[in-house]
Amino acid sequence: MKCRKCNGELVVKRSCRRVRLQCTSCKHEYQIHEVASDLDEKTSAILEQYTTIIYD
Ligand SMILES: [Zn+2]
Description:
56 residues, binds zinc ion
């Protein structure tokens, strides 16, 4: 999963009841719905652990 801005690696970041994807390079945070169409299998698998969380 790559950052759209800098091509850095995105990691799943959980805070309270929210889940974001954050770039390890430029630190930009993406909401799930922003990158939903680009989710790869690895990231999707991680997000499946958070199915009870509301994606705002
Ligand atoms: Zn980035």
